[in-house]
Input
Amino acid sequence: MFKKYCKDCGLPAICHIQTWLDEITGALTPQLRLSRKFESFFDTLLEKTFSSVGLIKMRDDFLPSEIQMRSACFIDAARKRGVKFLAAKGPAGYTNHFCAEINSRKIRFESLPVAGHIGKYDTSFVDCKERTKNHLQKGGFPIAEGKSFWFWKKDWALEYGSGELGFPLVVKPRGGSVARHVTTNIRSKEELRKAVDKAIAYSPAFVVERFMENSFVCRATIVDFDFVAVVQQVPANIVGDGRSTIQELAKRKNSDTRRGEPNKKEFALCKIVIDETTMKLLAEKNYDMRTVPKKNETVYLQKNSFLKLGGDLIEITEGGQLRP
Output
């Protein structure tokens, strides 16, 4: 039961219980700002409570492949500096909750520790798409038009999307990241209904917004406001060599050791998914999997740039390097 993975997000299906609880908890206390001392006390209390009833176990023998890649990279670097770590393991495997011990001092965190100088806009603020969109709008930044709904307002969302807003649309969970349970380029009410159901499976709250065609997905990493790195996500594709078929080129690309299955946390890139969308895209060009593309011709095998579908990451940082 616990090993059954969700095809939409690559997580064990039971993890959807946690994503629902996280969204509900965040909604109950959206503006609550606790002191770091109180937060530490509360985190310790939760850890001991869950451990005492057997919901989690704190272990130090976890493997990098059992936790998120960004956490694994941070922990690997910190261990070399003598920091000890425990990870919370639940019924579905390791969660994103950790405890670091530095000179007898314990620091509990989720995914990555938060810097002591963090301002009022912490990660929980950014994780909520509705709050982030409202904040950007107040600052005069362009945003995609849309609204947030709770699951019991599903019918309202369908009428709003298909009527007031109009197609094409995007539906996504209000919280979460890496395009989990996101549907893009929705062009009918039936597609919209399916997209809402998919989002609700992950979160009780979801966003319906206008789909921005011919746009790019870029992700930026900023370290202490001193270094910036930006990558652009590109839909799954192959580049012709003038000799090989599309099927051969896709198989060759999937053999890259840097690509794995979506549920394998140690991989940043995933294998290209060949499905109905692929066949439709190829048919539009009068191609099929046996077609031999011209040399240097790029053939897209997916519409969306999701990494879980085999999308690529291209560095677009100015100068191709980290810049101050």
Summary: The first strand starts at residue 57 and ends at 59.
